[in-house]
Amino acid sequence: MPRLRRRPRPLAIAIAIALLIGLLGASSAIGQGGKAAKTAPTAHAAVRSFSYDQAKLWIQAAEAQHQQVLVAFYHSEYTPTKLPSVALYQHDVQKFIKDFPHVKQYQSWDESNRGNVKYSFSSPSAGASARYYQALLRVCKGCTVIGLDVLDQANITPTLRYISEFKREINHLHTLMPSIWGLHDYSDVNRLQSFRTRDLTQALGGQVWLTETGGIVQFKPEFLNVRGAGLTRAAKVLKYTFNVAAANPRIKRLYIFDWSGGTSSTRFDAGLTDAHGVPRAGYVAVCRALHAAKCSVKVSNH
Fold first, then answer.
1. Which end of the chain has fewer CB within 10 Å, C or N?
2. How many Cα neighbours within 13 Å face the side chain of 63?
3. Per residue, what are the HEC states of 23-37?
4. Which CATH homologous superfamily contains domain 17-289?
5. CA distances in angstroms from 181 to 36, 103, 116, 129, 206, listed in the order given
6. Helices (H) and strands (E) in the chain — how many of each?
7. Rounded Cα distance, 174 and 168, in Å
């Protein structure tokens, strides 16, 4: 009689992944021959919210194509409102690192300052984020570990406070102050503004990676895609985003979220392609910003 196997305990954290490639090489329309402008940060593609099994398949596929991966940890899909203890976090992260020895770039928590949404998910305090960061450093020797990963939001005052509290806790822990920081600057660039990015990169200090950014096609209720207006707006925002990044010497990379777009019922949509994989105007804007060949493609109206 066969023995029943106990199902492994699910990880206390989920995984957000960004693909590190010189160009958005997932599409032949951009191609391998294009080169980014010398003054601009390199651009990459970003995807989010993988379970462990999904991440395993995705990373294996990326590594088979000799592509680098940036991994960020996030709340568990099983217990999203319950944050792991530092010991549990370190245990699960160590397991992940052991399973993927070729991944060398990590973020300790995705959008740490996002806050709590009742019944949906919880976010760590600045102090907890510092302890997660310290735990990741302990188990990932020789890795590039990004310090804090923050979302700008329309009012950046709470974000600035969060950064300050994180740094204060890092000093209390007597651990290594990050030299690379992560920023998601949606609120700023999608209003065609740059002061939030400027002030936050200054507050973070050191090198900054825009670990998630992009032109919003639709984000209800503020950004709507009425008769294709969102597609035009997103393309304009993407062009603007590259200019903002190139003008800021602290910003060395930008990761565009995301590749595949949604439908008219999708609440958040910043895809470079539509739901069927057809390039949008934003795709062309990115292609041209990277000075790639063959940017003239037929674009989607959806």
1. N
2. 13
3. CCCCCCCCCCCCCCC
4. Glycosidases (3.20.20.80)
5. 22, 18, 22, 13, 7
6. 8, 11
7. 10
